[in-house]
TrEMBL record:
It comes from Sulfurisphaera ohwakuensis. The keyword Membrane applies. The chain crosses the membrane at residues 12-39. It comes from the Archaea. This is DUF973 family protein. Keywords: Membrane, Transmembrane, Transmembrane helix. It holds the Pfam family DUF973.
Length: 141
């Protein structure tokens, strides 16, 4: 009785090595992408930070704040108050998208008793739809 050996079929060593190298490069790129925040859409809640210092200007019974914010994702502004005063922003319907956003907030000063001083720096607390609160600095002009 003669035994015949079947020839082994499979991937050659070179093809296997090439597949492993390609998989390693892809895994390394994904790790670097997450480490440097390149995949912001998958990162959960967006991060919002202020760019520069904002301004406050008077306009009749209103004080208007102009602020530049950077966001890593989409989020809405749901509240804004000037710290140390009773002034709250009116008609909030502003959304922040990923990137740099210029935000204008109006505060009704007719009901408050605080007088803002020109040249002084004030802090505005901005409430976001994801529950975060961002503190921004503005200078009254």
């Amino acid at each position: 009785m003669l035994l015949r050996r079947k020839a082994k079929k499979g991937l050659s060593g070179a093809v296997t090595a090439l597949i492993l190298v390609i998989a390693s490069v892809i895994i390394a790129l994904v790790v670097v992408g997450f480490a440097f925040g390149l995949f912001g859409a998958f990162g959960g809640t967006p991060t919002v930070t202020q760019v520069g210092t904002g301004t406050l200007t008077s306009s009749g019974n209103y004080v208007v704040a102009t602020i530049t914010l950077h966001s890593t994702g989409s989020v809405q502004i749901v509240s804004a108050t000037i710290a140390g005063t009773t002034y709250s922003a009116t008609s909030l319907s502003q959304s922040l998208s990923a990137g740099v956003n210029t935000v204008t907030l109006s505060f009704d000063t007719s009901t408050g008793s605080v007088t803002l001083q020109p040249g002084s720096t004030y802090t505005i607390s901005i409430g976001l739809s994801d529950g975060q609160t961002v503190q921004v600095a503005v200078v009254y002009q």
